[in-house]
Amino acid sequence: MEASRSAQYYIARQRVYRLILYLLLFAGCAIMLLPFIWMLTTSLKSSVAVLQMPPQWIPRDWAWSNYPRAWSVAPFGRYFFNSFFISITTTIGEVITTILAAYAFAKMRFFGKNLLFAGLLATLMIPGEMLLIPNYVTIVNLGWLDRYQALIIPWIVSVFGIFLLRQFFRSIPDELWDSARIDGCRRLRFLWQIVVPLSKPAILTVALFKFLGSWNAYQWVLIMTNTEGMRTVPVGLQLFSSEVGTAYELLMAASVLAIIPVLLLFFFAQKQFIQGIARTGIK
Amino acid sequence: MRLHRMFLVGLIGALLIGATALAQEPVTITFWHAMSSGHQPNLQKLADDFMAEYPYITVELVYQGGYGDLQQKINAAVVGKNLPTIAQVYENWVTPIAEILYPIGPHMTDEEKADIIDGLVESNTYNDVLTTLPFNKSIMVFYYRTDLVPTPPSTWEEYLAMARDLTVDEDGDGRIDRYGTGFRPAANPEQFLTLLEQAGGSILNEDWSEVTIDNDAGLAAMQFAADLTPYSFVTGEYMSDHFPYKVCMFIDTSAGYYYNNRAAQNKGVEMGVARVPAGPANQKSMIQGTNVAVFDTDYITQAQKEAGTLLARFLIRAENTVFWAIKGGYQPVTKSAYETDEWIEFVAGHDYQIAMSEQMLDGFSQILHPYYGDMRSIIATGYEEVMMGVSTPRQALDEIAAEIEPLLED
Q1: What number is the average pLDDT over the span A31-55?
Q2: Are residues A238 and B69, on separate chains, in Cβ contact within 8 Å?
Q3: Less packed terminus of chain B by CB within 10 Å, N or C?
Q4: What is the pLDDT of residue B21?
Q5: In this model, does residue B337 exceed pLDDT 90?
């Protein structure tokens, strides 16, 4: 009887804990989702309803025309193509260079390794704005201005990605390399056939960060391009803002379109993404 | 002899044809601008009309983002030797690089130069030469809710009294629900510069050898701002985001009319536009907006510079500056534009333009000091501190003067 009462009390307490936990998670989820909900509903409002107070959470008059209107403001088709092309190529490029560099820093011994790595990390502290004009001059001198080379090549290396992957590679036991070496395996083969398969979550994390960064790049694209045919989605979004106001309904419509590829990517890869973040710190 | 004459005639004819061909040689110019999607079709139309009049000139319009982005791009292009032929510019962007501006004035007639609104001439003149030309200009005016402000204030005293009366705590919770007025000190120090001008003050003296912002006129302007503080909603956001429910009246650019009016319509209220209330010395307000500048570098050909000059002059023709103003919400930049039938008809059909037009013809522009941009930032900080109640007017002005002083020594 006593045992039964204890068990019931335990079950009830667990239910209460779970309820509180779910309420907290729901609240957190609502806070995170609110901006997206606002973006979506604003994209379907008329210009008059956008800033109405109290705010309309559900539009009274659904302005579906905002989407074709926003699309027609600029060659968004071309912008999306450029965004995809640049994001995919820089992601592939960065993954390759990052894997190679991270492996060297994690598993190989060479003169000046630690100093070189410290130097690389130090470059993370330099504000991007300071380098913008020198980089612009470099791009102009290379003849890459307003060309894909300017938008891709400087971005196929990431110090942050090297750091992230290095940490992960360090957690791979050295004994694996010893065994492989005994069997006649060389570094490059060991890297691509053993290390990389073991490091998929971390590599995917690097790839996701890169894709997001490239997709959202605005200032670099704007500075390094002059023609519409070379611009990307974030530059297109700027067209809805002026010095005296913003066409919020059109901006939100364009933003919804811009965020769809990123959302899809995250939904399909979220498990690996979270694993990668969690495991990079584990030895 | 006959042969000789024929040869001469032929030679002269060939030279003329050659000269004409050379004069008409195709030239392409690039025009960097920061006009957003709403303005771009209008700018394209102007470019198309220009190209129709000058078929040998091709104008490539290049959007370079917002004004901050455009400035950054121009700065990078100066170093990267990649400047366009012509660009939209704020005065303080190009004052430090005035030596690479191609003066447009010498290519204009006296009538064209005299036609530019007086308040815009000085801010386009470098080394006593009209160098750039005004382009998309707006003027600070006074917006107000007609239901709460039946007659807009005409003096500072009336403005202060009305702001006080309109500031209310509707639900009695000790927090103000509606402010009489609103200011954007950090984003728009031009509001304070308007008050400074109206008080008879200035940032510097005439020959720029002395800081004068902290004199009695400066103090009067800053004190007035401080007096308004308890009745002011101070923000960095667009005032249209808070008008008309949080703010009843405010000083803002005429270019913001569309957004401010839309905000009023949201609440079902009418918005009025009036001249800025008069200060002790005058009722002027500050002209904002950009000019167009043609660049003078060794990689821009003479033909391109001349074509850029033609485009700049084309843009300020009465019919074109009127078109640009009507379509874009800006103000025409020449006196004759205000006398055209088109503009008169537009004003007759849009009451708010009466005040805007009057204010524009009585406007003033920024000074062309090379460090005006830095001065503007310093003033914005001090002004904001006063509006936030952090500094007294005297303290703020002393700090502003102390920070501007070293800039005069450079």
Answers
A1: 86
A2: yes
A3: N
A4: 46
A5: yes
Tokens of B51: 């190209």
| Chain B positions in Cβ-Cβ contact with residue A246 (cut-off 8 Å) | 238
- Look at A161-165, B15-19, B165-169 and tell me which has the smallest mean pLDDT: B15-19
Domain count for chain B, please give it.
2
B128 pLDDT band, cuts 50/70/90, is very high
Among chain A residues, the shortest Cα distance to B237 is held by A245
Domain, as residue range, for B326: 18-137+289-350
* CB-based burial, A4-30: b 16+ in 10 Å, e otherwise: eeeeeeeeeeeeeeeeeeeeeeeeeee
- Copy the structure tokens of residue A160: 């942050």
**Domain residue limits, chain A:** 73-279
Torsion of the alpha carbons at B349, B352, B357 and B360, rounded to the nearest 10 = -160
Q: What pLDDT sits at residue B14?
A: 46
Asked if the structure places residue B6 within a domain, the reply is: no
Residue in chain B nearest A73 by alpha carbon? B37
Residue B355 falls inside a structural domain: no
* pLDDT for A25 beyond 70: yes
Using the Cβ of B42 and the Cβ atoms of chain A, whether some distance falls under 8 Å is answered with no
Instruction: For residue B255, give the chain A residue with the closest CA.
Output: A244
Nearest chain B residue (CA) to A72: B37
pLDDT for the residue numbered B2? 54
Q: Which of B307, B364, B294 has its CA nearest to residue B94?
A: B294
Give the separation between CA B130 and CA B109, rounded to whole angstroms.
Answer: 12
Strands B129-130 and B133-145, by their bridges, are unpaired
Distance from CA of B76 to the nearest CA of A (A): 5
Over residues B315-324, mean pLDDT: 97
User: Is A61's Cβ below 8 Å from some Cβ in B?
Assistant: no
Q: CATH code for A73-279? A: 1.10.3720.10
- Residues in chain B within 8 Å Cβ distance of A145: 80, 82
Q: Which residues of B touch A245 (CB under 8 A)?
A: 238, 240, 256, 258-259
Task: Give the Cα separation of B60 and B82 in Å (integer).
Answer: 15
pLDDT, residue A278, reads 67
| Partners of B204 in the β-ladder | B211
Same domain, B207 and B79: no
Q: Of residues A48 and B191, which shows the higher confidence score?
A: B191
Chain segment A63-113, per-residue pLDDT in tens? 999 999 999 988 999 999 999 999 999 999 999 999 999 999 999 999 999
Does the distance separating the beta carbons of B266 and A52 come in below 8 Å? yes
Are the beta carbons of B80 and A137 separated by less than 8 Å?
Answer: yes
Given a cut of 80, whether residue A280 has pLDDT beyond it is no
* Record: contact A245-B238, CB cut-off 8 A: yes
How many Cβ contacts (< 8 angstroms) between chains A and B? 91
Inform me whether the pLDDT recorded for B392 exceeds 60.
yes
Mean pLDDT within A28-56: 87
Cβ–Cβ contact A246 with B under 8 A: yes
Chain B residues touching residue A247 (CB < 8 angstroms): 37-38
Same domain, B149 and B127: no
